[in-house]
DNA sequence: CGCTTTTGACCTGCGC
DNA sequence: GCGCAGGTCAAAAGCG
């Protein structure tokens, strides 16, 4: 937990600024999306330079609006707010002119309008410095201060609430999205199957689709004997909810509560890795017999199962036995893995009763200072902010992997692949795809060593620059990728996995085009993707932003196989 | 006392 | 079918 303070310190700046004025606080939100500015590597410059009102009016991403609108509402609601707003406005207007020069200068330094997004960090000072008509202002300032303080209180609370809401919503949305995607894919598959089948047996059959639901109707009927048997096996400490699920057991022997709570069903991973078994032989499913429900059950089961398989693996140097990622874990097993002297430990999330999330921790065989943490599944409960990074990462990545593996084996069309390549133009060799394996896995390599096979320093990759920071906690990084994945997925997946028809050009990622296929270049240069990266990275950077270069490498590799050390 | 870790047994999928 | 390897279970032990 201690380590997590760091990662999430990016909330702090928000609060600090909050103490200045609501406006400033709001702009902080925007700050989260200022990443494009930093692409030029001029983080420091931008911070030092004073922002202007004009800058703040440039909205980089829509996501910001969520907060902004909320804030605005907040402002309007209070009486004196308007006064404050006016004040700040006036001040800003004043300063605007001088700032413009700065902008021009900077823009020559770096690049285009990206600079417009620069920080407002100095705004407080500016307000102080600017004190023009001192006397008048002072009086006002005093009263304003009082108001501001109150306002600040309110806003802080509101902020807190919003944060909580956001995290929760994000969580929910992630899982919902995951499910939706899976269902969509399933439907596609089913359509495919149905059509082919009906073609084959067109003469004999009336309706092919009927077949599927029927299976589930059968499955839906839990046998009374089984349940009673299973009750015996329930552990003393286990919640009664375990019983509910026991009907999904297939073998009488070990009726362990794998899917521990009813929640799990709706959430992800109700079914263990044996999807096919669940589908065909017996058990499980909703008791109801309507064909629709059955179909849904299939979809869900398959989706969950697939989801389950999707993994996010993080390689990081750490002497600690485990990365602290904000979640509570309970060790449930340990095994000697083949070809590795170090044992592999198995953990499961204990923050909620039925949470299906698991993780494996193992040291790298070649370099024992490298810790390999592999996550599976999605949390079925609200997460503390400290845990959001990992969670969103796994969810998003899992979704990505899902869509990629199911819809096409084509590595080029695999969004995950694309992402990996897009993020790692210099180390595209790392993005190996072996179509042969059961577990689609995305691997984040945060280790120091350049891994030999990656001679190019990744310094020209924007993402690298951000990862290569001293205070950078490996545990946070997943959020970067996670969010990137997340946003990217909305682009690439929901638009039907089709590559953007119109490749757009973004200087920052243009290098991708050289080393990567045209397809991946298209995605990578997609402004939305860039923006997603920006959002994700900026949010991280804002928190643990200390300029320094560490020799950290961030490699993202995807494979359909087990992660080999 | 409640929770976590340890650890041997067990289950499952896969290749031969 | 057999053996192997990965993954999981749960009783027992450990810990605060
Ligand atoms: Zn959880």
UniProtKB/TrEMBL annotation:
<dbReference type="GO" id="GO:0005634">
    <property type="term" value="C:nucleus"/>
</dbReference>
<dbReference type="GO" id="GO:0043565">
    <property type="term" value="F:sequence-specific DNA binding"/>
</dbReference>
<keyword id="KW-0805">Transcription regulation</keyword>
<protein>
    <submittedName>
        <fullName>Putative WRKY transcription factor 42</fullName>
    </submittedName>
</protein>
<keyword id="KW-0804">Transcription</keyword>
<feature type="compositionally biased region" description="Polar residues">
    <location>
        <begin position="234"/>
        <end position="250"/>
    </location>
</feature>
<feature type="coiled-coil region">
    <location>
        <begin position="138"/>
        <end position="179"/>
    </location>
</feature>
<feature type="compositionally biased region" description="Basic and acidic residues">
    <location>
        <begin position="186"/>
        <end position="209"/>
    </location>
</feature>
<feature type="region of interest" description="Disordered">
    <location>
        <begin position="543"/>
        <end position="565"/>
    </location>
</feature>
<dbReference type="InterPro" id="IPR044810">
    <property type="entry name" value="WRKY_plant"/>
</dbReference>
<keyword id="KW-0238">DNA-binding</keyword>
<feature type="compositionally biased region" description="Low complexity">
    <location>
        <begin position="282"/>
        <end position="294"/>
    </location>
</feature>
<dbReference type="InterPro" id="IPR036576">
    <property type="entry name" value="WRKY_dom_sf"/>
</dbReference>
<feature type="region of interest" description="Disordered">
    <location>
        <begin position="185"/>
        <end position="294"/>
    </location>
</feature>
<dbReference type="Pfam" id="PF03106">
    <property type="entry name" value="WRKY"/>
</dbReference>
<keyword id="KW-0539">Nucleus</keyword>
<feature type="domain" description="WRKY">
    <location>
        <begin position="318"/>
        <end position="384"/>
    </location>
</feature>
<keyword id="KW-0175">Coiled coil</keyword>
<dbReference type="GO" id="GO:0003700">
    <property type="term" value="F:DNA-binding transcription factor activity"/>
</dbReference>
<dbReference type="InterPro" id="IPR003657">
    <property type="entry name" value="WRKY_dom"/>
</dbReference>
């Amino acid at each position: 937990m201690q380590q997590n303070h760091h990662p999430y310190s990016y909330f702090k700046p928000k609060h600090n600024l909050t103490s200045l004025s609501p406006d400033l606080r709001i702009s902080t939100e925007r700050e989260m999306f200022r990443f494009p500015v930093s692409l030029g590597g001029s983080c420091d410059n931008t911070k030092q330079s004073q922002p202007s009102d004009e800058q703040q009016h440039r909205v980089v991403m829509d996501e910001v609006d969520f907060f902004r609108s909320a804030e605005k509402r907040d402002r309007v609601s209070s009486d004196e707010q308007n006064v404050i707003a006016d004040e700040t406005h006036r001040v800003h207007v004043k300063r605007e002119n001088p700032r413009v020069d700065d902008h021009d200068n900077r823009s020559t330094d770096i690049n285009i309008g990206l600079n417009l997004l620069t920080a407002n960090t100095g705004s407080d000072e500016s307000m102080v410095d600017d004190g023009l008509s001192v006397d008048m202002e002072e009086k006002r300032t005093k009263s304003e201060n009082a108001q501001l303080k109150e306002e600040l209180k309110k806003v802080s609370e509101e902020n807190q609430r919003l944060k909580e809401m956001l995290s929760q919503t994000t969580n929910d949305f992630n899982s919902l999205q995951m499910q939706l995607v899976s269902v969509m894919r399933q439907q596609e598959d089913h359509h495919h199957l149905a059509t082919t089948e009906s073609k084959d047996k067109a003469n004999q059959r009336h309706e092919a689709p009927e077949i599927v639901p029927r299976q589930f109707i059968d499955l839906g009927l839990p046998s009374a004997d089984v349940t009673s048997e299973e009750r015996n096996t329930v552990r003393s400490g286990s919640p009664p909810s375990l019983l509910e699920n026991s009907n999904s057991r297939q073998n009488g022997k070990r009726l362990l509560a794998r899917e521990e709570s009813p929640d799990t069903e709706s959430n992800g991973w109700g079914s263990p890795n044996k999807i096919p078994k669940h589908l065909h032989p017996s058990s499980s499913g909703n008791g109801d017999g309507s064909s629709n429900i059955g179909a849904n059950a299939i979809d869900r089961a398959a989706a969950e199962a697939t989801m389950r398989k999707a993994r996010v693996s993080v390689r990081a140097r750490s002497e600690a036995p485990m990365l602290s990622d904000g979640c509570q874990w309970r060790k449930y097993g340990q095994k000697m893995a083949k070809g590795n002297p170090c044992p592999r430990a198995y953990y499961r999330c204990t923050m909620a009763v039925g949470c299906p999330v698991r993780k494996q921790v193992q040291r790298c065989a070649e370099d024992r200072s490298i810790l390999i943490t592999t996550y599976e599944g999605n949390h079925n409960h609200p997460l503390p902010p400290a845990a959001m990074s990992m969670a969103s990462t796994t969810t998003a990545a899992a979704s990505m992997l899902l869509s990629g593996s199911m819809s096409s084996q084509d590595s080029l069309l695999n969004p995950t692949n694309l992402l990996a390549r897009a993020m790692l133009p210099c180390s595209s060799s790392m993005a190996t795809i072996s179509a042969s394996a059961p577990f689609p896995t995305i691997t984040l390599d945060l280790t120091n060593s350049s891994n030999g096979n990656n001679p190019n320093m990744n310094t020209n990759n924007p993402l690298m620059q951000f990862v290569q920071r001293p205070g950078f906690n490996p545990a946070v990084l997943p959020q970067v990728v996670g969010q990137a994945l997340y946003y990217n997925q909305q682009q690439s997946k929901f638009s039907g996995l089709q590559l953007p028809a119109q490749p757009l050009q973004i200087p920052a990622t243009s290098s991708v085009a050289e080393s990567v296929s045209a397809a991946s270049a298209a995605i990578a240069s997609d402004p939305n993707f860039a923006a997603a990266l920006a959002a994700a990275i900026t949010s991280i950077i804002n928190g643990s932003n200390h300029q320094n270069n560490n020799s950290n490498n961030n490699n993202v590799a995807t494979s359909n196989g087990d992660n080999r050390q």
